[in-house]
Design brief:
Length: 93
């Protein structure tokens, strides 16, 4: 269930979904949402530290939550409407 978000129109379309959705931003909130069964889809920045995102990836796979990769933390931060980079975010059910 892993998808790569590529730069360009396709990436923007996928990340646009985040702007209008109920979401959680950041590793702590995203982990909590997945643990509670509230996450529908998780977005992870490819340039985020693996030490930070490793547990989240495993948890998503164990719970059948789709993971979509954004190329950069800056791109993901912009998609969720913050002015700094975001390592992870998720759409809530």
């Amino acid at each position: 269930m892993l998808k790569k978000v590529k730069e360009g129109k396709g990436a923007q379309e996928v990340l646009e979904v985040l702007k209008g959705s109920n979401k959680a931003i950041g590793i702590k909130q995203t982990l909590k949402a997945v643990e509670n069964g509230a996450a529908e889809k998780v977005f992870i920045a490819r340039d985020a530290d693996e030490k930070i995102t490793g547990n989240l990836k495993e948890l998503c796979q164990a719970n059948g939550v789709e993971i979509v990769y954004a190329d950069t933390m800056k791109q993901l931060g912009k998609a969720v409407g913050i002015e700094v980079g975001a390592s992870t975010a998720c759409i809530l059910k």
